[in-house]
Amino acid sequence: MDPETTPPLPPTGSGSVVGDDLGLGLQLPGDGTVDAAGRRRVHPITPLVHAVSALPIALIVLFSLSIGGAFAIGARTVFLALALLVILPLVVGGISYLAWRNLWFWFDDDGDFRVDSGILTKKQRRLQLSRLQSVDVTQPLAARVFSLAEVTVEVAGSHDSRVRLRFLPLAAARDLRSELLARAAGLRHDVGEAPEAPIASVAPRDLAVSLVLRTVTAGLLLLTGLIIVFTVLTSGWGGLVLALFTGGLPILIVVGEFMKFFNFTVSQSPDGLRLRFGLAKTETRTVPPGRVQAIEFVEPLLWRRWNWVRLRVNIAGVGGTDSNGNTEETLLIPVATRDIADDIVARVLPGLDLAGMDWQAAPDRSRRRSPIQWSRLAVAWDDHVFVARRGRLTRRIMVIPHVRTQSVRLTQGPWERPLDLASVHVDSTPGPVKVMALHLDAGAARAIADAQALRAERGRAQDRTTRWAAEQLRDGASVEEPGAGQPDA
Amino acid sequence: MADRTTDAFTSDDVWTPVSPRLITARRITLALVMLLAVAGVVALFLIPGVPRAWALAAAVVALVVFVWLWWLIGRRVRSFGYSERGDDLLVTSGIMFRRLVIVPYGRMQLVDVKAGPIDRWLGVTTVQLHTAAATTDAKIPGLVPDVAAALRDRLAQRGEQRSTGL
Fold first, then answer.
1. Are residues A53 and A149 in the same domain?
2. Do B166 and A489 touch (CB under 8 A)?
3. B60/chain A closest Cα distance in angstroms
4. CA dist list (Å): A1 to A36, A39, A182
5. A369 to each of A24, A114, A359, A406, how far by Cα in Å?
6. How far apart are CA B72 and CA B60, in angstroms?
7. Does residue A144 belong to any structural domain of this protein?
8. Domain end: A167, A198, A229, which one?
9. Inter-chain contact B88–A487, Cβ cutoff 8 Å?
10. Domain count, chain A
11. Residue B166: in which H helix or E strand, if any?
12. Residue B92: closest CA among A453, B144, B83
């Protein structure tokens, strides 16, 4: 095997200068093992980490058993409890050890990323780096204790296109990420971790305020307040049960998102935008500029005083559904002023000029279909992007580049038909952004849909983003040529 | 039905309708479901203590729903059509909720050809186009197997010529 394509894993602690370890300080010696063929392993401490993460589950089981009154306190039950606390982590750790022994990853001679895994059923995966969508480094709580991290590799694909490597030392995880991204961008892989410059960060106070003031959340909290006031006034205490739901749900969502997006920072690196966030579980996500499929500006009514917006984004292979099958809202930033948001967008979609576009509004008769938002409904396009606008209380602007348009749909519901209205939907990869231009004149909508399909097909011919870094450095010395010109699907 | 030249969903294109055999296939499925309803109504008549009027009402409701669905299937199937243009494929369908899907050939990731047991017996096949978007809903049911296979091959060929990635 060519030593140049499979360099040994750099020693722990080398290279990375970016970001501080958020771990709790237990640095462990050693790193991923490398075998004679250059195949790598994750850190040998991994089974221990998995065993530790099983402890809370054991505790929960014990707790629920004791609540259920399954046993009285006595010498025997204490023994049983201890046994459970020992056995469950042992079993988890044992399985994890077998998995660790069978997990290998390496770069093969064709430049593909290979992962072999499986205890009983062997699985061999080969990821084409030309189709790489993103590489995330995350630190679950148990891994943070040991300064370890998980690397998630996303490749464009409809099903099960994600590989998770658990766990690598944080520095090794970052090095692996930069190597993957460099290879995918068509650069040589020994360029090291790309330097990055911070662009924006979200203050915890702003995040908390913004989450509370989102339209639905604020509405539910207001409703809760009203219910409580009425309940107290009328002494009909049954209302408090309802208040528990209308108040509890938004509070859960606010707390959950606050924990998830805590300390959100965006920085620019040659690999693309790098996002870091999380309180208990920290995540790092790199968004290469060519991988952004669609963007949405979300501006709830109560955010306007500060000129705040949230940026939602579709990235192929990410965020449609997370590992648990839940739909995940992928963001470029949870809240930022419009200037900062525009700056971030300019880095992934250069040349976007919303104000200078020729907006085509929905006709006045759309008032009868959508009495509130009709005056905001409009659509526009230029040589590169298709843009639609909707929403009155929560204003939304959806942007999709022509080269990312998968298909175009024209729809007409029973309320639209008598008004001769129709809606245009521009289909993007799965994600939070759904691009729709609602309630346009039916004839105009059809013309827009036809033209957009044509722009999608034509725009594709000029697409240069699949190996974007190599394009930028077309004549540079560090460009790796093989495969640069071939189609990637 | 709106005038073909002014209607946004059907204008200007040469539409290929789907096979009327699809109507038969769907009506057979409907009849099978209807058998269950008939069994239910008969049971209502036989169970002592159920007022005759109720059972009669259930029978009437079942009959009305059956006739309405029977008629609707015909209209729905006739609303399906597809059109192969130079750069893209159009699929239209729907009566209450009408839709028109435009799929550029270069964006097709795969083309499925499917047929269930009743469909196979009657000789109808469904061709479905997939892009990288899950929301692309381009399904053409009710094609004669030969037509379906030929369409699939044509689409695959055009897709291959133009495909450049995600």
1. yes
2. yes
3. 27
4. 10, 10, 20
5. 56, 53, 20, 28
6. 18
7. yes
8. A198
9. no
10. 2
11. none
12. B83
Domain residue limits at A297: 285-462
Which structure tokens are listed for B155? 């689409």
A448 touches chain B (CB under 8 A): no
Q: Which of A425, A456, A463 sits opposite B104 (nearest CB)?
A: A456
Q: Does B91 lie at the interface with A, CB-CB under 8 angstroms?
A: no
Question: How many Cα atoms within 13 Å fall on the side-chain side of residue A48?
Answer: 10
Kindly provide the ipTM of the predicted complex, given to two decimals: 0.88
CB-CB under 8 Å, A320 with B131: no
| Co-location of A179 and A321 in the same domain | no
Restricting to A residues 411-430, those with a Cβ less than 8 Å away from any Cβ of B are 411-414, 417, 422, 425, 427-430
Q: Which of these, A317, A350, A306, A309, lies nearest to A333 by C-alpha position?
A: A309
Residue at a domain's end among A198, A232, A266:
A198
Residues contacting residue A394 through CB under 8 Å, at least 6 positions apart: A214, A215, A298, A299, A300, A301
Say yes or no: A402 and A291 in one domain: yes
Q: Is B87 on the interface with A (CB under 8 A)?
A: yes
Q: Which of A406, A411, A457 sits opposite B131 (nearest CB)?
A: A406
Q: Could you identify the residue written with the tokens 């296979």?
A: B149
- A32: amino acid identity, one letter: G
How does pLDDT run across A239-296, given as a tens digit for each residue?
Answer: 777 788 888 888 888 999 999 999 999 999 877 888 999 888 888 888 877 788 999 9
| Least CB–CB distance from A446: residue in B11, B87, B107 | B11
Is residue B55 less than 8 Å (CB to CB) from chain A? no
Most confident of A318-332, B14-28, B107-121: B14-28
Cβ-defined contact of B99 to A488 (cutoff 8 Å): no
* Residue the block writes with tokens 């946004």: B8
Any chain B CB within 8 A of the CB of A53? no
pLDDT digits 0-9 by tens, A427-474: 998 888 999 999 999 999 999 999 999 999 887 655 545 444 444 444
Chain A residues inside the 8 Å CB shell of B138: 407
Contact in structure between A427 and B135 (CB atoms under 8 Å): yes
In chain A, pLDDT over 70 holds for what percent of residues? 79
The HSE-up count of residue A460 (CA atoms within 13 Å, CB side) is 24
